[in-house]
Amino acid sequence: MSPPVRIAMWSGPRNISTAMMRSFENRADTAVVDEPFYAAYLAATGLDHPMRDEVLASQSTDWSQVIADLTGQAPDGAAVFYQKHMTQHMLPGVDLSWTAQCRNAFLIRDPARVLASYSAKRGEVTLADIGVERQGELFEREADRLGHAPPVIEGRDILIDPPRALTALCAALGIAFDPAMLAWPAGRRDTDGVWAPAWYDAVERSTGFGPPPDEAAPPALSDELQRIADAARPSYERLAAFRIGLSSGSAQP
Length: 253
Fold this sequence. Notes:
Radius of gyration: 17 Å
Oligomer: single chain
Largest sheet: 5 strands, parallel
Strand order of the largest sheet: 2-3-1-4-5
């Protein structure tokens, strides 16, 4: 059996990462996996996340076992294996050589918007929690490996024009765009992480990409959250320069 096309989509929290997973899962040729390193990350850091015990019980906490699963055959022998990853789960010292077997892409969102949403779910937030700096490091590593920038897509750009953005993303990943990616049935999936009740209420009600939120005004952040947003902004803007479909995408990494 031929190896699958493995797509590693690297995002931080409170983006449209789960809707993107829905979109790819609605393709007939694609299997998906939801944040496979989450339990290993919680076990290593000791962080107290919502449904921590359930997460730890639901996945392997052995990094090497997770990597073996991700680099093996796709579930049900699917031709495309879409992997939804959170950048903050890739702790320093974790072997990243397996990512060379994937087509890596980066889903970005303005850090101030991320913080406004994430802080509503968790009372205390750190810069590391939102994964923007780690996303920048992973981007630079992949750009060095490829010799050019890997695909970068802004969540808001997808919401503004899903067919255009997804067509561009699929082309950059070397797969055909499938119109089935534009809509999906509402409800929970067996492939959703066990943590879905704590985080996925909106996407469970969705049947496609919703309209972009009104972002005319910057979100109101506390002084501490604003400091985090300011610290994350250089990494975000570095990736944003390579957004698919924009003239700035011609910049060199």
